[in-house]
Amino acid sequence: MHPAPSQAPARTHRTPDTRSARAALALALPSVLLVLLVVFQWGPLMELDGDISRTTHRWAVSEPEFTHVNRILTDWVWDPWTMRVLCAALAVWLVWRHRAWWLALWVAATCAVGTVVQQSLKAAVGRERPVWPDPVDSAHYAAFPSGHAMTATVVCGLLLWLLRLYGAGRALWHAAVVLAVVSVVGVGLTRVWLGVHWPSDVLGGWLLGAFMVTLAVTSYPKFMSGRSGQPYGNVRAEAEGAPEAPDGRGLEMRGSGRP
Q1: Which ranges carry the Phosphatidic acid phosphatase type 2/haloperoxidase domain (predicted)?
Q2: Which residues contact 53 (CB under 8 A, 6 or more apart)?
Q3: Which of 6, 29, 101, 154 could form a disulfide with 114 if both were Cys (CB 3.0 to 4.6 A apart)?
């Protein structure tokens, strides 16, 4: 008899949790670095902020119609309170359509914690906003990080996560990605155009918002598994109303959850 051939070593694949954890770390490092550069007023960054802000302010003064459009977008369409209402609507939809109470609470808590982090950093850093002899808009409280940019990033990121979690169709997913990117990038640009934020304030909002979303996505499966003592696949199927496969693995959730 010939000896049985040795089995090839099984390939190891990075789990979604591992990828999310790596992404969270990759976002945390530049976020902390940027905070430190702003706190210690690193010369090259301050100079770059000033150059960009002075240029965009000249454009804003010379283009009043376009500036007015930017004010409408930043004050109504992409305002933080508009985004928070959208987040609340997502939470209501999760409870009403899928009975996903824990997931709804997780989404709402992520948005709330993001606001607390944002306001705490503003108070701690205490960065002054740009001051112009001929301002085209006004804003209050400290500058870093941009609340508009951070809130839009958190809410849009959570929305994309939920769409992926519930198996959104390709057309809906692509449309949502485009809308999210336009909203997050657009609101940041409006804040710089209107002269109420330095560019690094907006960059800080983007980085911190993305970090908050990645942290929420990473920690939610651990929370759900720890709450029930089951692997997250089973927990997800039971908690969000998706059917469970015969082999015990939770199926991917689709938009046809329980009414």
Answers
A1: 103-217
A2: 130, 192, 195, 198, 199
A3: 154
Q: Residues 83-110: pLDDT tens digits?
A: 999 999 999 999 999 999 999 999 999 9
3-class secondary-structure state, position 98: helix
The pLDDT assigned to 23 comes to 87
Q: Which amino acid is at 94?
A: L
What average pLDDT is seen over the chain?
A: 86
- Measured CA to CA, the distance from residue 163 to residue 8 in angstroms comes to 38
> Can you tell me whether residue 76 is helix, strand or coil?
helix
Helices (H), ranges, the chain:
16-39, 43-62, 64-72, 80-98, 101-125, 147-165, 170-193, 199-228, 232-239
DSSP summary character for residue 48: H
Q: How far apart are CA 137 and CA 56, in angstroms?
A: 13
- What is the C-alpha separation between 123 and 142, in angstroms, rounded? 7
Q: What percent of the chain has pLDDT over 70?
A: 81
Confidence of residue 14 (pLDDT cuts 50, 70, 90): low
User: Which candidate, 259, 244, 213, 236, places its Cα nearest to that of 23?
Assistant: 213
One-letter identity of residue 93:
W
Global pTM reads 0.84
Burial bucket for residue 235 (CB in 10 Å: 0-12, 13-18, 19+) = buried
Kindly indicate the confidence band of residue 251, based on its pLDDT and cuts at 50, 70 and 90. Answer: very low
